[in-house]
Amino acid sequence: MKKLFFISVVILLTMTIGCTKRQTIHYPPIAKTDVVDEYFGVKVADPYRWLENDTSRETEAWVATQNEVTFGYLKNIPFRDSLMTRITNLWNYPKYGVPFRKGNYYFFFKNDGLQNQAVLYIQEGLDGEPSVLLDPNTLSPDGTIALAGFAVSKDARYASYSIAEAGSDWNKIYVMDLPGGEKLTDELLWVKFSGIAWKGDGFYYSRFEAPEEGTELSAQNKNHKVYYHKVGTDQSQDQLIYDNPAFPLRTYTCGTTDDERYLLLYGSESTYGNELSYKDLSREDAPFIQLVEGFDHEYYVVDNLDQAFFIITDAKAPRKKLVKVVLNGTADVTWHDLIPEAEEVLEGAAVIGGKIFAQYMKDAASQVCMYDYNGNVFGELQLPGLGTLGGFSGTRDDNTAFYLFTSFTFPTTIYKYDVETNTSTVYKSSEIDFDPDDYMVKQEFYQSKDGTKIPMFIVHRKDLKMDGSNPALLYGYGGFSIPMTPSFSITRLVYLENGFVYAVPGLRGGGEYGEEWHKAGTLQNKQNVFDDFIAAAEYLIAQGYTSSDRLAISGGSNGGLLVGACMTQRPDLFRVALPAVGVMDMLRYHKFTIGHFWAVDYGTSEDDSTMFAYLLGYSPLHNLKPGVAYPATLITTADHDDRVVPAHSFKFAATLQEHHRGENPVLIRIETRAGHGGGKPTAKIIEEAADVISFVFYNLGIEPTME
Question: 57-75 and 682-700 are packed helices; what angle lies between their axes, rounded to 10 degrees?
């Protein structure tokens, strides 16, 4: 490390909030270097570059000292333990996943309540007795090994499953016999961003070459390849199906049609847009035929009927449509609109019981319409209310399907659906001790800085007084065409039962209104996302829901970037900021793991001088200013996050502690043996929730009640 020295940034922070105990924080000394990068003639210092080395002793020591300070602070919050008890009690009820069928067997996930990982069950027929097929809780003593994928062969003889350790995106694939679940000798390593697509007694999957030792969680992922693995053979014998060394940063994933006649190959170079090719597996040595070239639009094969594909696309349809393509063995095919673009966004489609179920999103809430194979609409699936449908499962031959429905005050419920009669009945309901009649959910619209109308869900107790004194939590994302739709959260109940207003705006950059809405919040339109979020806060204050002294903001990943940008642009507007696993260094994000995939939304600092200047203008890390009083901030990240590497949060925290002046605490909580969030065990989820909620309450001056 070049010219390493320490500057003493030990600030004595004393704070008194409500009747809580006074705390004094001593921030650890901060190591700095003289690293400077030059972009288009502009020099940018990066004094905490050394924190990018996630395996160094210096970084390990810094993490330990930061956690010591943070957990010491959280431990001294007087109601932290009682909040954890309340969250644990709320969490402790059975939770079910949507059943799905293969052959004569049904499969489903269930968590008894506080199990670290959901358990996979199998049963013969709908009336069979369920038995445990795979319990991930037995794979590690701390519950940090999670089931990441599961696929069953067409004849239901085998199942392949992938596991992820400590929250990493790296997977290992194993194979078992059915129905007993006996584990076979197969083990496939260095699998990432892969499906499992069965064909006969083997399956297609995608992987990278083994990374250099010590770089597994940070090195850029290159040269994705597709292989075929035959059950019972060693990985070294797997057949290479496709690679493209001319474009090492692209990824390739495969799927097979339900009849296993066609192999589908999707090529991507970002989080949006894909190429599509297929191979006719009924013909020996058939080539891949490319149906779609380039990455300007998205294409996803829903199903096939003989030699016809049903494909969802946003080509010439920003809110998506379903098209039919009849294959002829060449790339020269005709695309017919089967279900044309509508005013609502087409989220997905499923072929079940001889019908096409098209799932739409209207103002971020679900709707489902039914069509025949000619695209004629003949009905609508009646949902319980304003909320989100998910997990629709069934096959073209089934008369029975399953789906889940959830909303902000509607705990996740599994429904059994009769296709012939178009009726739904509750299959598995929630047993949580919660009365939804105490709360109300509404959707309001407000104007952003440029006059654009933005939707926002608002949830609160029915007896709320609009006097500006209520605490509020504003949550946002605004990126990668991902919509913020209604969903149920156990931890959110703790906020609501203590009088919080919970608000979720549908920011530009998301997918609430299709691809045009998404693009309105990308690249040099990214500031629109931050303006939308800031305007949401100002709306809540103006309408009497809350005040800036009672307002907390939260977001994760791209939402962590959102929180980081807004707290640096408007530190006066928020009392508490919770950036989780955020993208904080917009000049270097593309240099780690799969970060280059995000360039379609962000652009990169190396594109041109204009894009560099734009990124520098909002990058949270680079817009922290000395002497500014920032909101009380709790940054959260994890040591095994190889999606958004923790260096983002590390460097942001170090810079924030150096520059911040004021009484608000600015802390970082670094989870161990955890990643970006997926597969996190229940125990760690509850512990983190207790810490975060305690921090919010403590810094808003709220003494929680435990209902």
Answer: 60
133 pLDDT higher than 90: yes
Distance CA 112, CA 166 (A): 22
Q: Whose structure tokens read 């907390």? A: 552
Q: Per-residue pLDDT tens for 171-223? A: 999 999 999 999 999 999 999 999 999 999 999 999 999 999 999 988 999 99
User: Distance between CA 379 and CA 170 in Å, rounded?
Assistant: 43
Residues forming beta bridges with residue 362, ordered by sequence position: 365
Per-chain mean pLDDT for the chain? 94
Checking if the pLDDT of 615 tops 80, the result is: yes
φ/ψ of residue 499, rounded to 5: 85, 10
Q: Which residue numbers are catalytic?
A: 557, 676
Type and span of the H or E element at 530: helix 527-542
Taking Cα atoms as reference points, which of 350, 307, 313, 351 lies closest to residue 325? 307
Q: What does the pLDDT look like over 460-512, one tens digit per residue?
A: 999 999 999 999 999 999 999 999 999 999 999 999 999 999 999 999 999 99
Q: Residue 192: its pLDDT value, please?
A: 96
| Environment class of 154 (CB within 10 Å of its CB; exposed 0-12, middle 13-18, buried 19+) | middle
Compute the residue count for the chain: 707
How far apart are the C-alpha atoms of 599 and 678, rounded to whole Å?
A: 22
Q: Which amino acid is at 628?
A: V
3-state secondary structure of 460: strand
Across 23-27, 321-325, 444-448, 480-484, least confident range:
23-27
Strand, helix or coil for residue 245:
coil
CA distance 572 to 534: 11
Place of tokens 């008894």: 112
> Which of 382, 414, 419, 352 lies closest to 98 in space, CA to CA?
414
CB within 8 Å of 481: residues ≥ 6 apart: 271, 272, 509, 510, 511, 515, 518
71 by Cβ neighbours in 10 Å (0-12 / 13-18 / 19+) ranks as middle
Q: Please give the Cα distance from 17 to 549 (Å, whole number).
A: 12
Instruction: Say how far residue 348 (Cα) sits from the centre of its chain.
Output: 18
- Between helix 57-75 and helix 647-659 the angle, nearest 10°, is 60
3-class secondary structure, 562: helix
Residue 352 CA to its chain's centroid (Å): 27
Q: How confident is the model at residue 151 (pLDDT cuts 50, 70, 90)?
A: very high
Task: Determine contact, residues 482/488, Cβ cutoff 8 Å.
Answer: no
Residue 17's pLDDT band (cuts 50, 70, 90): very low
* DSSP conformation letters of 187-244: EEEEE-S---EEETTEEEEEE-PPPPTT-TTTSPP---EEEEEETTS-GGGPEEEE--
pTM assigned to the model? 0.93
Q: Which residues have a Cβ under 8 Å from the Cβ of 585 and sit 6 or more positions away? A: 619, 621, 622, 647, 648, 651, 652
Catalogue the long-range contacts made by 122-128 (C-beta closer than 8 Å, 24 or more residues apart).
122/178, 122/179, 122/181, 124/179, 126/400
- The CATH number assigned to the domain with range 63-89+448-700 reads 3.40.50.1820
Q: CA geometry: angle at 166 spanning 48 and 147, to 5°?
A: 145
Per the CB < 8 A criterion, the answer to whether 699 and 17 are in contact is: yes
